Structures are given as structure tokens and as C-alpha cells.
Amino acid sequence: MTIRTRFAPSPTGLLHVGNARAALFCFLFAKAQNGEFMLRYDDTDQERSSDAFSSAIDQDLAWLGLQPDVTARQSERFARYEEVFTALNEKGLVYACYETPDELDRKRKRQLARGLPPVYDRAALALTDEEKQAFEAEGRQAHWRFKLSGNDVHWEDLIRGSQKIETASLSDPVIRRADGTWLYTLPSVVDDLDLAITHVIRGEDHVTNTAAQIELIAAIGGAAPEFAHFSLMLGADGSNLSKRIGSLSLQDLRGQGFEAMSLNSLIARLGTADPVEPVQDLASLISGFDISRLGRAPARFDPEDVARLNARILHDMSYELAQPRLQQIGAPDDEAFWLGVRGNIDYFADVAQMVTLINGPITPIVEDEDADFIVAAHAALPAAPLTAESWSQWTTALKQQTGRKGRGLFMPLRQALTGQAHGPEMQHLLPLIGYDRVVARLTGASE
Length: 447
Ligand code: GLU
Description:
Number of strands: 12
Strand content: 5-15%
Largest sheet: 3 strands, parallel
Structural class: alpha/beta
Bound molecules: glutamic acid
CATH topology of the domain at 368-446: Arc Repressor Mutant, subunit A
CATH class of the domain at 368-446: Mainly Alpha
């Protein structure tokens, strides 16, 4: 049996970090078992779904590195949902209801006022054909509910352990609206069955849906997949992360210059007892992935943690990984350059400042009291070409000659050569700046 998971966003908004976590878990779980990761656009709501949001989802997943093996679209499968619906209707497992939203609301309020749970009373099940015709003659269209069995539903959740839900305590779910459009439940179940999903991994806000879905699967005559419901992710302040307000959208995080692996490294571990570590590639996350490590406590997401991981990921990034991106931004395509500067960047875009340190233009800084020292430094500069050893040869000679040491020795050179008081180690920078530019900066600086 091939393991197959699905990430099923509705293309009605931008993905946020909470969605990324669902996608990542589905991806890691499948890949850790040589399985397949499916992207399913839950676009049954055609008014609110858009191609622009579908492409944004594609871009976000590509950025995260979570390439789907298979893609499906619910909007292409309406005929199939109709077929299943007809079969359920023939078996008497769905029923037509005519209450308006206002009437339902009043019923709920009456139940609550009497201290009862606001569960749908199944009044529509008692309607005679004449009563239904009367409603239709009035211009009302039926919406449809799936008839739950009233029994307990059990499943062994891969994260939450043994689960039991009494369907008698639930309202029969509306599966089709009066305008004929589908709610999420039926299409989702039909797709999970038809598209051979073996594991449904999603947030715990779907736990109750799962009970109804397991009953619907049985009614259709399929075998239920395994389920895993992970705890929800909250903001650092405990607030809800809602994709509708686009807070912490992946687009924003990408725009802020975060590495996808910084985000992946963090969200793979949030909500587990395992330490968050900077990880350079998904392969390392796949090999360590164990869904049972996820706990039930909410996971708190703090963008500051991503920023910290970002710097650590860049500081350790191999030249091999950085190279294509160095080329893209016109940085020196040179291992020594990357190894020399990576420790001084927090964001990849900071490489541009490093390129400027080397290629210029820079404005050398020379304090008045260092002017003579810089003249001496120019005279003592080792011959071309400058190498990894040149800095230590040069400063050792200057130390002997001028008696300067420590900061008094190094800082004037750094400021004259880079125009900055901080930056990558000078021993790396010197050969990268190169003899001619070093001379130009020293002479420019000493003029
Ligand atoms: N489209 C549903 C959602 O975004 C999918 C839930 C599921 O994974 O079944 O909530």
C-alpha cells in the first residue's frame, strides 16, 4: 500500500504559517514512508475561490520545497459528488430540509434557553411529501443533511490516541446548500476515498468533523483512512492565526526575507518536546519525522524564532546550496566569498552589502590620529596577490613596526578598507577585496 496524504487548502485566501504546518506534516509523513503527497484545492465555493489564490498556494508550496506528487481540484469533480449524493439519497441516508437560517437560529436559541445542546432536532425527517411540496411552492429550496447513526464513533488518532465521539450529540451535518452547492464534508470524504488517501493529517478543529466523516465513509461503502489531528498553532501572544486576515501569510514571511528552511525547521518541531534546530534541507526533517512526537498542547509561533533560525541557517549554509542564489544576485561566484561572509548575514539579501564591501563603492573611514598609521600600513602591505595568510603577515609586521595592537591595530585597517566598524573577518576579506582595491582604499584613505 502506498502511503498518500493530502494537503487540502481552499483557494479563498493566502496560506499562513498554520497552513504551512499542515502541508509540512502531510509532506514529511508521506515522504518518511516513501509515500505521495497530494495537493487538493478545496474549491467547491466557486464564488470565493480564485485562480490567483490557487497560484499563490503553488508558489508558497514551491518556496517551502513541498512539491506535490499529485494535484486534484474539487471543482473538476462535481459530477462525482452528485453521483454519490444520489446513491445516498436512494438509501435514505440524506434528507431534505427547508428551515431558513433564521428559523434554525430561533430553534438553537430556544434550545439554549432551556439548557439543551443546540443540536438539530431532525424536524425535517417528519415532513410529508405534501408539506415538502408546499414549501417548494412557497419558493423554498431544500438543503440537505446527512443522517448520522446516533452511535459512538471510535478511531485511533495517530496524535490524540483513542477517540470516541457520540454522534447522537451532533447535528446531522448539512452537506448541500439550498442553491445546490456543496459544503466541505461530502466532497472531502469522496475525494479521500477516490483518490486513495491513506492518512488524513489536519488540525484539531476537524476532530468533530471526523466523526461525521467516518459515518459518511461507511455510508458510501468505503474504508476509513487513518486520522491524525494536530493541535492548533497560536500566535506568540496566544491569539488565533486566521488565514482570512492574512496575518503571518507565507507571502509576507517570504517578503521579509526568511529562508523557507527557517520556517520549516521551526514548524516541524513546534508542539513537540524535541528541540528546534536549524536544518538545512527537507531530507533531514524527513528522516527525523515521527508524527507521534506531536503533543496536544497548542503550538505557539513567534516570528522572532524564525529570525533567529534564519541567521543560524545562513551561517552554516554550504557553498553548494548558496551558489545558485549568489549567481542570481550577481555576487562573486566563489566559495571563499561565501565562506567569508556567511557568518555576517542575518538574511540572504544582506549578501548585497557584503558585495559592496568588496567591490565598492565604499567610503574609507580614517580618524585623524590614524592617518600616519594608514600610510605605514600601505607601505607594509604584502605583495600581490593577497592570500588567506596576508592579513596575519601584514598585521604582525605592523604591530612590530608601530607598537599598535588589538583594536588600535585592527580597527583603523577595517575602517579604511571597508568603511565599516563591523563585518566579516579581515583575513577573509583581504584576498576578496584584492591587492589593487586595497591599495586604492589605503591611498584614498590616507590622502
Ligand atoms: N479545506 C479544508 C480546510 O481548509 C480541508 C480540511 C481537511 O484537511 O480535511 O479546512
